[in-house]
Design goal:
510 residues; alpha/beta; FAD/NAD(P)-binding domain; Enolase-like, domain 1; 3 domains; seven-stranded mixed sheet; 34% helix; 23% strand
Length: 510
């Protein structure tokens, strides 16, 4: 299959929106430029990390080459953040209409969902965002954009489309892809991943999702809200096993309300093609055997770094099945070659790739010593409610021998949450014991991804809960819960002795 055919297979249907997208991020008539004699920086991979590296370096006057074999914008634009959040927003709209009755808003004919229209909206919006990541935009920055497979031929040169590019420094930013886990019978059935689920045009009547991590939970809930009967299969107990148990429990309650059926602690999972060309799934969950036939299957577990066919051995770059090996300055074992993003990071988020790329620019071009150790990386799962986290979990603090105090504010005690009808959430902050220094936080709320940034700002700039308590927040907002956490910390400073002294002082002044 040619790359053009592969583009169309992933970005189907081949309608105007997807044609516009490909014309921007992998123009079929693009002619690669004549290579410069030497580049300050050659970047392989035009996902988030690669684009930020290329744009930042070019903006500082470097001569830059950017190589992409597939679609500019990488997973985030084409098969990740952008299409998934468009789909989730449509599903939230469906749920809002479904639940409108509790606000006194009556929908006489109930909820009618046009899944095809929701997917068309996603494709249209994705294409409208694509100019930011387009070949033309980066070419206009003075960057030499090469479409083709980039491969190192020695420690300081890369070959692409028959041309050799010499460099002083290089960046590997080839990302990762969905990987198929070892499930009995998976190779006998047709299944979806994040790379092709957004090509659906018809809503599956019954959908099975394997993996209750972030992607699995987001898609399971979204499709349930559209009207699919969803089975969510997970080998661990509950969902989002990495997250705070109370937090993931709140999200699970919401997903069950939306109709998702969870088969957790799953054992002996097997897949087979049904006689009617559907998918038969058998699994044991909590001692009960399930034999289910579904229309479509989404596999949402496992990622594999894109290290193949890059000539890493010829470049003296060490790698494993987990990706390219780097130090905390993002140098590979070839000190003139760096890596950034999913190819080398345990934090496979767009925003993490962005800030890793900024470290690469400083270190590769300006002899800097910026370190990933200094990054404070938050993340968010965009279920309803959202669950966002930054820093350490309580269990991690215990494993590291860090004694902590924990402060929790339930959204059921926050005025704005009560008025919005979004009381199923919390704000939980961990601080070093006896201090206000924040070491971690989890937020569960409808807009937790926005709210976590206040905690992240405080941690990044070493501002404690006292500073948050002294910051005026608008009333009424859900973010006021964060300020109330600060108040809760301040109350711990009023010891019995201090309270006794103040009481006597007040009595004396009466």
């Amino acid at each position: 299959m040619s790359k053009a055919d592969n583009d169309q297979a992933i970005l189907s249907p081949w309608d105007t929106h997807n044609q516009n997208l490909v014309a921007l991020v992998h123009p079929p008539n693009w002619e690669n430029p004549k290579p410069a004699s030497t580049y300050n920086l050659v970047v392989i991979g035009a996902g988030t990390a690669g684009l930020v590296c290329a744009a930042g370096a070019a903006g500082l006057g470097a001569k830059v080459a950017l190589i992409e074999r597939h679609l500019m914008g990488g997973d985030c634009l084409n098969v990740g953040c952008v299409p998934s959040k468009a789909l989730i927003r449509a599903a939230r709209a469906a749920a809002a209409v479904r639940d409108a009755g509790e606000f006194g808003v009556i929908i006489p004919d109930g909820v009618k969902i046009d899944f095809g229209q929701a997917m068309e909206r996603m494709r249209r919006l994705r294409a409208s965002i694509a100019p930011h990541d387009s070949v033309k935009r980066f070419s206009d920055m003075g960057i030499d954009v090469f479409i083709g497979d980039g491969r190192f031929v020695d420690t300081h040169s890369v070959e692409v489309a028959g041309e050799r590019l010499s460099f002083k420094k290089a960046v590997i930013a080839t990302g990762a892809r969905a990987a198929a886990p070892p499930i009995d019978g998976l190779d006998t059935v047709s299944y979806l991943t994040n790379e092709n689920i957004f090509s659906l045009t018809e809503l599956p009547k019954r959908l099975a999702v394997i993996g209750a991590g972030p992607i699995g939970c987001e898609m399971a809930q979204a499709f349930a809200r559209f009207g699919s009967e969803v089975l969510l299969v997970e080998t661990a107990h509950g969902i989002l096993p990495r997250e705070d148990a109370d937090a993931s429990g709140i999200v699970l309650e919401s997903m069950l309300k939306d109709g998702v059926k969870l088969l957790c602690c799953g054992k002996a999972l097997k897949l087979a093609k049904d006689a009617n060309d559907k998918i038969r799934l058998t699994v044991e969950s909590h001692g009960k055997n399930y034999d289910e036939v579904v229309d479509r299957l989404l596999v949402a577990v496992g990622r594999a770094p894109n290290v193949e066919n890059l000539g890493l051995e010829d470049a003296d770059v060490a790698y494993t099945r987990k990706g390219v090996q780097v130090n905390n300055r993002l140098q590979t074992t070839n000190t003139d070659i760096y890596a950034a993003g999913d190819i080398c990071s345990p934090y496979q988020f767009t925003h993490a790739a962005d800030f890793m790329a900024r470290i690469v620019i400083r270190n590769a071009l300006f002899f800097g010593r910026a370190s990933t150790d200094d990054l404070v990386i938050p993340w968010c799962t965009y279920t309803e409610p959202e669950i966002a986290h930054v820093g350490l979990y309580e269990k991690q603090a215990q494993e590291k021998g860090i004694e902590i105090d924990t402060f929790t504010r339930e959204l059921s005690d926050v005025d704005r949450s009560i008025l919005e009808g979004h009381t199923n959430g919390l704000v939980r902050v961990h601080v070093r014991k006896g201090t206000d220094k924040i070491v971690g936080a989890t937020i569960v709320a409808s807009n937790a991804g926005d709210m976590i940034s206040e905690i992240n700002l405080a941690m990044t700039h070493k501002l404690g809960l006292k500073h948050i308590a002294n910051t005026i927040h608008p009333y009424p907002t859900q973010a006021e819960a964060i300020r109330q956490i600060g108040d809760a910390y301040n109350r711990t400073r009023l010891t019995p002795l201090a309270k006794s002294i103040f009481s006597r002082l007040m009595a004396w002044r009466r």
